[in-house]
Specification:
Layout (H helix, E strand, L loop, with lengths): L2 H8 L2 E5 L7 H10 L4 E5 L5 H11 L4 E5 L5 H9 L3 E3 L5 H10 L3 E2 L1 E2 L2 H9 L4 E4 L7 H9 L6 E5 L7 H5 L4 E6 L5 H5 L3 H14 L6
Parallel strand pairs: 1-2, 1-9, 2-3, 3-4, 4-5, 6-7, 7-8, 8-9
Helix pairs in contact: 2-10, 4-5
The structure holds 3-phosphoglyceric acid.
């Protein structure tokens, strides 16, 4: 599966997860799946991240699971071994790109300037994460990039929420968005999986994918 296929499957939203306790990984993943979503990004920011990836890949096989916050090439092989089907980075450099290609691991590099986009394109990456989207006026940036830099598929992430999701998704070069708002800490602490499903359902409904 290519990164482009994965973004298409993830539409409208790739939830960005920061999992503190691997025991919560499967219920979170199941809740998001029940709410209509097909993919999750587990950020490598907590000690339990890889264990969480492993649990999700084994116990929720109908959900695509990837890793995020990849900043160092050595993280990629470890993530793949744990069951990650794709990887996301907040930025881009050749070492990350080369290792992802070597591992044949679908990879979503982070970019926010035309030069970064061109460097990623030069290595063959056409699916890109615009990060941090809202902080850099991502809507206008994506519109401006669409003219000169064509055939690209963006996942806008950073500051996306229920009020701007649809506007981003309406852009021709946006395949899906990333966001953390579906899985707030408080709901996880309260084990309120039903509310996490509702937030996922709401995001899908906003994008016209299902009814509330
Ligand atoms: C991240 O890696 O934290 C993502 O950009 C999520 O951003 P958000 O919390 O603004 O959705």
């Amino acid at each position: 599966m290519t990164m482009e296929d994965i973004l298409r499957k993830a539409y409208p939203l790739l939830p960005v997860l920061v999992i503190e306790d691997a025991e919560t990984a499967v219920p979170i993943a199941q809740a998001l799946k029940a709410g209509g979503l097909n993919a999750v990004e587990v950020t490598l920011r907590t000690p339990d991240a890889l264990k969480s990836v492993q649990k999700i890949s084994e116990e929720v096989p109908d959900l695509l699971v990837g890793v995020g916050t990849v900043v160092c090439p050595t993280q990629l092989a470890k993530a793949q071994k744990a069951g990650a089907q794709f990887a996301v980075s907040p930025g881009f450099n050749k070492a990350l790109g080369r290792e992802a290609l070597r591992l044949k691991m679908p990879f979503l590099p982070g970019v926010m300037t035309p030069s970064e986009v061109m460097k990623a394109m030069k290595m063959g990456f056409k699916s890109l994460k615009l990060f941090p989207a809202d902080a850099v006026n991502g809507l206008e940036l994506l519109k401006s990039l669409h003219g000169p830099l064509t055939d690209l598929h963006f996942c806008a992430t950073g500051g996306i929420n229920r009020s701007n999701l649809l506007t981003y998704l309406s852009l021709p070069n946006v395949s899906c968005c990333g966001g953390s708002w579906l899985v707030p800490n408080k709901l996880v602490q309260n084990k309120d999986w039903e509310q996490i499903s509702s937030l996922a359902r709401e995001a899908c409904a906003l994008a016209g994918r299902m009814e509330l």
